[in-house]
Write a structure and sequence with these properties.
The chain is built from 14 helices and 11 strands. By secondary structure, it is an alpha/beta fold.
Length: 316
């Protein structure tokens, strides 16, 4: 892979970004991906401020290469989270689930590069106007919290590319080198990959959850709870409970009561496969083994190079 706008922006070897997922993206995973030439991301969404500081410090000891922190802006203790990021001199921040204008100027004043995650052209343009350095355009194939528009990655990327001047990162439904190549052909400068890295040895998710990910087949995930915050999850007992409740025309309060608190932690971190929220992407149907993060990176790079050769032989 040749250097491009994203590898230059982040000072990394490959335009491969490991998504900052809650309950999966701790310092071990982030440092391994960064060491392998990609951009590892610590997922702050499932961390108290003091826990985040510990992960940042351990990541800095484990790698001298750039890494980032992902911050969902709807979470509490946001001021403390941002203060720690600045104090620890984290070089790159990925923000999501909020207005990019809120923190971008402040972070950039501390020489931190800012990337915002969006699910539509409208919010990609708002992010560019807010001064972010790059945008992640995430299709609704992605796991976890998602856009209400339900725009697929292959539709979203060229639409966003047409309107943006800043670098563009594709996300959602990408777990192979050929997927990275396809996203880049459509206009992306890099790919952000989540689900494939959940099924890694270094991912901090519970082994029960990882095993469910590699067992998943086509159609085993569903986007639901759109009235609260749309989320893609594996179909399990909790999901079936949601479907049963929907059949009664529930109020938002009814849905909130069923969701309760810490469902994602219960499922992904504690390994409760029945009552937990098991957030994962559609591409889980193509993943069938748990691998070291370094091996995942090696596979992605080799697949990308092989896909380029195969693509060059296609005739029209």
């Amino acid at each position: 892979m040749k250097a491009n706008r994203i590898t230059k922006l982040f000072n990394v070897k490959y335009p491969i970004i490991q998504a900052g997922m809650i309950w999966a993206s701790g310092w071990k995973l982030a440092s391994e991906v960064s060491e392998a030439g990609g951009l590892g991301i610590i997922g702050a969404g499932s961390m108290y401020p003091d826990v985040l500081r510990e992960h940042i410090q351990k990541c800095k000891k484990a790698t001298s290469k750039p890494f980032a922190v992902n911050v969902p802006m709807l979470y509490p203790d946001l001021d403390k989270i941002m203060e720690i990021i600045i104090e620890e001199k984290v070089p790159i921040v990925f923000t999501s689930a909020g207005n990019p204008k809120t923190w971008t100027p402040h972070l950039k004043s501390h020489n931190i590069k800012v990337v915002h995650v969006v699910s539509s052209v409208k919010f990609a343009l708002k992010s560019q106007e807010a001064g972010v350095d790059a945008v992640v355009a995430e299709g609704f194939e992605a796991g976890g919290h998602n856009g209400r528009e339900e725009t697929t990655t292959f539709t979203l990327i060229p639409m966003v590319k047409k309107e943006l001047t800043i670098p563009l990162i594709a996300a959602g439904g990408i777990a192979s080198g050929s997927g990275i190549l396809a996203a880049m052909i459509l206009g992306a400068d890099a790919a952000q990959i989540g689900t494939r890295f959940v099924a890694s040895e270094e991912g901090s998710s519970h082994i029960n959850f990882k095993k469910e990910v590699i067992k998943a087949q086509e159609g085993d995930t569903r986007l639901t709870l759109k009235e609260l915050a749309p989320v893609r999850m594996l179909k399990n007992k909790f999901y079936q409970d949601i479907e049963k409740l929907y059949s009664t025309s529930p109020t938002i309060e009814d849905l909130q009561d069923l969701l309760g608190r810490a469902r994602a932690k219960k499922g992904m971190f504690e390994g409760d496969l029945e009552e937990g929220e098991l957030e994962i992407g559609q591409i889980s149907g193509l993943i069938n083994e748990i691998l070291p993060a370094k091996k995942i990176m090696e596979n992605l790079i080799a697949e990308f190079e092989a896909a380029k050769i195969e693509a060059s032989a296609i005739e029209f």
